[in-house]
Amino acid sequence: MDVRSSLRLIRRNWWVVVITVMVALGASALVTVRSVPRYEASVTFFVTTSSKGVGEAYQGNFLMQQRVKSYVDLLRSDRLAQTVVAKTPLGLTADQVQSRIVAASVPDTVLLRATLTDTEAARALKLTEAIAAEFVSLVKQIETPPDGGGATIKVEVISGPRVGSTPVSPNPVRNLVLGALAGLLAGLALAVLRTRLDTRLRDSLTLQRVTGSPLLGEIPFDGSARSAPLIVGDAANSPRAEAVRKLRTNLRFVDVHEPARVIAVTSALQGEGKTTLSCNLAIALAEAGWRVALVDADLRRPKVADYLGLEAGVGLTDVLLGDVQVGDVVQRWGDKSLLVLPSGSTPPNPSELLGSKAMADLLVVLRQSADIVIIDTAPLRTVTDGVVVAVQADGALLVSQHGRTDRTHVAAAAQSLQSVSVRLLGCVLNMAKMAKVDAYGYESYKVLVAPPAATVPVDRARAAAGGAHARGGPAHDETQQLTRLPR
Q1: Which residue from 162, 242, 295, 399 has the highest number of Cβ atoms inside 10 Å of its Cβ?
Q2: What does the pLDDT look like over 349-374, one tens digit per residue?
Q3: For residues 216-229, average pLDDT
Q4: What is the distance between the alpha carbons of residues 218 and 472, in angstroms, rounded to a whole number?
Q5: Residue 53, pLDDT score
Q6: Per the confidence metrics, is the pTM higher than 0.90?
């Protein structure tokens, strides 16, 4: 994982890190408040020997340094602790006295320092005084020869005993700093763990890898899309609308030699925005001068008519059952070259109906009457309707929602299409988190269109380059061709 990936991971999981640090700080503060204050008292000893001459002085100094190392253990010995308890009753046992003493020698010197901690400053001072006195006496007894001669090594107190006026623990600043660092490390670990365990789609590269198909578009998240899902009116100049137009261009150039004219738009799960994208893609194609037919083949939960504000009582189901002719129920939307075939009544057997010969015949008619046919299908992971329709189309477009769709579901959806040899044109990441688009006047340029010749794609940019001639509109009567369907 490189630095950029790490920073992206932290930015994506910043709230995990913040919460963990706050919890750690709270725990540190609680521990600090509830901890009993402890005071520290200390005393320093100097070990000396009686020696004469330079040679003896050198040997004596070497001997004392070795002795000092032994005196460290002597300060914490049972004998010294029992003597202190016996002569200075402070309500402590010998084991408690030993646990309070920390002894250490100063390197390359003959100094020995003893430090004692206690919850009471006065008791810490008295206990240190007792230890200092008894330790000097104990060394004298041990170092005195059996013949009664004078001790060659003696210990003197050169500093202390003294006790600090403020407790050495708890240390609020230190505890909070350590708590914050521990929380930060724990937060980063949780962020990494959460990222590893999170199988939802978070970026377009993952979507391409999972589906094994090219990324044709990233539709940015737009908070106003819930109330205004279509890219018309004010929304026509939004970054979301421009992303749909980019998808339109990419989709038309997926395979120039074998362009897809009947496209099934589907998703792995319900609620990923496939219907909204189907409507907006059809609108964008119609903007560019294409004759577009939009079919609502999601017979279980149809939404196309609701989004476009059309009558949905009679439509695809009734045509497939032979009750009506397609020319009687297809509806023009707005002033664009866009015809819409709603779902119609809800059938008891959607999969069988969509896989019937009547559906295949209908697609043939639509293919002859429109330049591009967009079919909104059911999700692939819930029912088989989407696969049934995609098999009859020229290709499928798989829509996935950023931060919601599980990678395993997307992979399974792509596999379900590939298992029946459906041509997966590409994938679209919907509601993606993208950098804010620079407000380079979406309203400063208009979508100028020229009529396409046969199936040669003409994008908005090329139409705009056509100047005033492009504004003249189609040379043929587009309205008549859009409505030239069998009755």
Answers
A1: 295
A2: 899 999 999 999 999 999 999 999 99
A3: 88
A4: 32
A5: 43
A6: no
